[in-house]
Write a structure and sequence with these properties.
Shape: elongated
Helix content: 10-25%
Order of helices and strands: HEEEEEEEEE
Radius of gyration: 25 Å
Oligomer: single chain
Distance between the termini: 68 Å
Number of helices: 1
Length: 147
């Protein structure tokens, strides 16, 4: 397509369009509020020593790490009892950033069973966080893996 001559009308059209775009950008930037999930309960309970108990949907929900002495590169299981909806959860390193690992849950008679494996770390003692998400609320707990 051949280049067209820049006329006064076309220049005004470009300027008006730029003003509209800049105004929309500034408005969206000033009024932006990120939608973050509610940090419903944050706990420092140690899943190595005890179970975590949360109140989810007005019910006492227990989160249990089935192995009290978890090891890296071995399958681990997380049991969640007394919850009606399917949970989603992720595991992430606290001591060292090892990425975010998903936990896959299957429904059992008495709750949900999640299976995951944490990778081996260079530290002798690695602390991991489990973030359990139910209905846009996040319930956190942690456990430690020792070499």
């Amino acid at each position: 397509m051949a280049a067209q001559k820049l006329t006064r009308g076309r220049l005004i059209q470009i300027i008006v369009l730029m003003i509209i775009l800049i105004t929309a950008f500034v408005w969206r930037t000033v009024t932006y509020q990120p939608k973050t999930p509610n940090q419903a309960q944050i706990t420092t309970c140690d899943l190595n020593a005890e179970n975590c108990v949360f109140t989810i949907n007005n019910k006492q929900t227990t989160v249990t790490l089935l192995s009290r002495e978890p090891q890296a590169d071995t399958p681990l299981e997380l049991h969640i009892s007394n919850i009606d909806v399917a949970p989603s959860a992720t595991v992430s390193g606290i001591t060292m950033n090892m990425g975010i690992l998903p936990i896959e849950f299957t429904q059992q008679k008495n709750g949900w069973l999640g299976k995951f494996t944490v990778p081996n770390c260079t530290h002798d003692k690695m602390t991991w966080a489990i973030d359990l998400k139910v209905n846009n609320d996040i319930y956190s707990s942690q456990f430690t893996v020792i070499k």
